[in-house]
Amino acid sequence: MKLAVVAANGKAGQLITKEAYDRGLDVTAIVRSSNKTVTDQVIQKDLFDLTTADIAEFDVVIDAFGQSDENKLDEHSKSMKHLGDLVSNSNKRLLIIGGAGSLYVDEAHTLKLIDSPDFPEQFKKISQAQIKTLEEIQKRKDVKWTFICPAPVFQYDGEKTGEYKLSADEVIGSKVSYADFAQAMVDEVLEAQHIQQGFAVFAK
Fold first, then answer.
1. 192: left (phi > 0), else alpha (psi -120 to 50), else beta?
2. Helical H runs in 47-168?
3. What global pTM score does this model have?
4. What average pLDDT does the segment 130-158 reach?
């Protein structure tokens, strides 16, 4: 199995690349600038310039791209669409990092986290952009996608416990470390349990 991590220089991208590398996977970092990851297998190219030839050898592509600039939030959808088009109608899988705002806070699925009273106003626009990518990828039957959301509190400096719990689309905990999220991501790469589905990762 050959794996590519797009935007591998980012916080999540670096840890996912390391997790895959440490577990012996054949992992390539796709980065726009100089490689900052543990692997020496690198494609240095802008995400939006990637072609089908660039990803031809990979079985799984992880979209770790993120954009926090409020003037460029549409790049969430654009990047996902571009990568989706590259793997369209193939056996290649596309794993996408989402956001917790799309998760429900009640079993009846009447209220999403983004619409709950305590959701921070400063995160609403980026959360809306991430929800839009989920709604768009759900419509694509030509892509073997998986949409993976972290818990509401995504802890970069959180410890790696080696344990986590999953939810299909509900908030069942408050936090998860980047390291445990990376483990869940690589587990999904290997086990392929959620093709054309989403799930969320929480500290156990």
1. left
2. 75-87, 124-137
3. 0.95
4. 97
Q: What is the pLDDT of residue 50?
A: 98
Cα–Cα dist 147/87, whole Å: 15
CB neighbour list of residue 100: distance below 8 Å, 6 or more residues apart? 113, 127, 149, 150, 151, 152, 154, 171, 200
Asked if 60 and 4 count as a contact pair (C-beta separation under 8 A), the reply is yes
- Amino acid (1-letter code) at residue 102: S
**CB within 8 A of 198, min separation 6: which ones?**
98, 102, 134, 138, 146, 147, 148, 149, 168, 169
Percent over 70 (pLDDT), the chain: 100
179 and 150 Cβ atoms separated by less than 8 Å: no
How many whole angstroms separate alpha carbon 22 and alpha carbon 183? 11
What six digits make up the tokens of 156?
């970069």
Angle at 77 between CA 76 and CA 78, to 5 degrees: 95
